[in-house]
Write a structure and sequence with these properties.
The structure is a single chain. The chain is α+β, with helices and mostly antiparallel strands. It has 2 domains: 45-98, no CATH class; 110-253, endopeptidase domain like (from Nostoc punctiforme) (endopeptidase fold (from Nostoc punctiforme), Alpha-Beta Complex), CATH 3.90.1720. It has 4 helices and 11 strands, in the order H-E-E-E-H-E-E-H-H-E-E-E-E-E-E. The strands form 3 sheets. The chain has a 6-stranded antiparallel beta sheet with strand order 6-11-7-8-9-10. Strands 1-3-2 form a 3-stranded antiparallel beta sheet, with no helix packed on it. A two-stranded antiparallel ribbon has the order 4-5. A hairpin with a 2-residue loop joins strand 2 and strand 3 (90-93). Helix 2 crosses helix 3.
């Protein structure tokens, strides 16, 4: 009996010596390939998981064994700004650059949008002002004609109407009503394109208007249709016009 037991042990050891050398290398190769494949998956910037994280678990950690999920679902996930897309019941985690909400240019953010609109508006006003002044300057030398609006003759308010019409800005026909159009401007804030109004008769009733063409320090030049000399350029500092000045407005900003 002891002889048979010894013989069986010897045969078992011999069989293991023959089988194991042929199987062990194959298992090692398979195990090595498995590790390489897992490493490649974890190195990817985008990973796919069969389920979303549970229990508000921080990104990049495995689900605890006590949570009830199987071991195959313990693959660590990389979440960028908690952005998840549901595609065929599979949660896909994608990378995207983080934006600072304070300086975001999203359409829902009102402050950057307002800044851009204000800048565009300023550029538009500047272009229109240049066009208005060019149009008015083209009428220099035109004779004065009460109620006129052509190169054969025009009055002061007619010159203003024609000039601003070139930028599709319709203004009232008389200087008194034009004075009520646009944003009022203090005398020390007058800029090119503004309208300046005068009272050349007794009292302070407005009856004359001109278009500011340039401002050099406190020296303001304006173009107007003079009843005695036609369309010409004068200075606000002139002894005749300075005491007769009443107000100024910015018609393109009204």
């Amino acid at each position: 009996m002891r002889y048979h037991s010894f013989l069986m042990v010897a045969l078992t050891v011999a069989a293991s010596a023959v089988i194991l050398p042929s199987c062990t290398p194959a298992k090692k190769v398979a195990r090595y390939q498995y590790l390489l494949d897992n490493k490649t998956e974890h190195d990817n910037d985008t990973q796919v998981a069969s389920h979303p994280p549970r229990n508000n678990q921080p990104p990049g950690r495995n689900t605890p064994s006590g949570s009830g999920s199987s071991s195959q679902n313990n693959t660590p996930l990389i979440y960028e700004h908690d952005k998840k897309e549901q595609e065929n019941n599979v949660v896909v985690i994608r990378n995207r650059p983080r934006q600072n909400p304070r300086y975001s240019t999203n359409d829902n953010e009102s402050r950057p949008t307002k800044v851009l609109h204000a800048r565009d508006r300023d550029l538009e006003i500047q272009r229109d002002t240049e066009q208005v002044i060019r149009t008015a300057m083209s009428y220099i030398g035109t004779p004065y004609l009460y109620g006129g609006t052509s190169r054969r003759g025009m009055d002061c308010s007619g010159l203003v109407c024609l000039s601003y019409k070139s930028v599709d800005k319709d203004l009232p026909r008389t200087s008194a009503t034009q004075a009520e159009t646009g944003r009022p401007v203090p005398r020390n804030k007058i800029q090119p394109g503004h309208l300046i109004f005068f009272s050349t008769s007794k009292g302070r009733k407005i009856n004359h208007v001109g278009i500011v063409t340039s401002v050099d320090g406190g020296d303001v030049e304006f173009i107007h249709a003079s009843s005695s000399r036609g369309v010409r350029i004068d200075k606000l500092s002139h002894e005749y016009w300075r005491p007769r000045f009443v107000k100024a407005v910015a018609p393109l900003e009204g």
